[in-house]
Design goal:
This protein is an alpha/beta fold. It is 39% helix and 14% strand. It contains ten helices and six strands. The longest helix is centred in the N-terminal third of the chain and has 14 residues. The structure holds adenosine-5'-triphosphate (ATP).
Length: 218
């Protein structure tokens, strides 16, 4: 049985290229629902699943820090940005778990990412290291799920956030959050077309993008 600690963490990894209100609101809603004090945002250094991000890792780290600078519930980890080689979530979580052996760790991923979760490096081990909070559409996505994932869900699904809080890892919970149809892709294409993405992301992040000339076409 888990007793509440201030080491408990809601975790959101991403390329954050750039970070926007879709990321921030989703993770804040999960944080409040879980009753956890801290969110850790982890910008990926070298994402194994995607093409190279547009902005380099240093810029993405700075933008993520700027986005939450005034919010004491949020921290930003440079772990993946500083690590050499591909950013594997399993390595990041292993390091976090070592620092917080008994804490509740709850990693947020969007439903779209979850549908491909069985392609992640050592995904089964990830499920032993953290809870998975899948955000997005409500309901049971069983029909679309690969068999291995369906099995994992069968063993690990939890429908009660209070029960999930009693163990430090190992459960999968679907949690509906306010749908904000914002993507980093759409922000980058607005900027490339010399249009403003204002109000899709924090003003301070947009100021940084403008000052550094990020995402503008050559
Ligand atoms: P891109 O458009 O470049 O693919 P993105 O906006 O989807 O980027 P990522 O950094 O790839 O952002 O996403 C990190 C995590 O945040 C993923 O788990 C993703 O599902 C989630 N996420 C992204 N956008 C939203 C959103 N609008 N609402 C809720 N979650 C989101």
């Amino acid at each position: 049985m888990h007793s509440s600690t201030h080491d408990d963490l809601v975790i959101l990894g991403g390329t954050f290229d750039p970070i926007h209100y879709g990321h921030l609101r989703a993770v804040e809603e999960v944080r409040q629902a879980l009753g956890v004090a801290q969110v850790m945002l982890i910008p990926a250094g070298h994402p194994p699943h995607r093409q190279s991000p547009w902005a380099d890792a240093r810029h993405r780290l700075v933008m993520t820090r700027i986005a939450v600078a005034h919010h004491p519930h949020f921290t930003v980890s440079s772990l993946e940005v500083e690590r050499e080689g591909p950013s594997y979530t399993v390595d990041t979580l292993t390091a976090l778990r070592r620092q917080r052996p008994d804490a509740v760790l709850a990693m947020v991923i969007g439903m779209d990412a979850f549908l491909r979760f069985d392609t992640w490096h050592h995904w089964q081990r990830i499920l032993d290291l953290t809870h998975l909070i899948v955000t997005g559409r409500p309901g049971w996505p069983a029909a679309e799920l690969p068999e291995a994932l369906r099995q994992a869900l069968y063993q690990r699904r939890c429908e009660d956030i209070g029960i999930l809080r009693q163990t430090s890892a190992g459960r999968i919970l679907f949690h509906t959050v306010t749908a904000l149809e914002i993507s980093a892709t759409s922000i980058r294409s607005l900027l490339a077309n010399h249009q403003s993405p204002r109000f899709l992301l924090p003003d301070e992040v947009l100021d940084y993008i403008d000052a550094e000339g990020l995402y503008h076409s050559p």
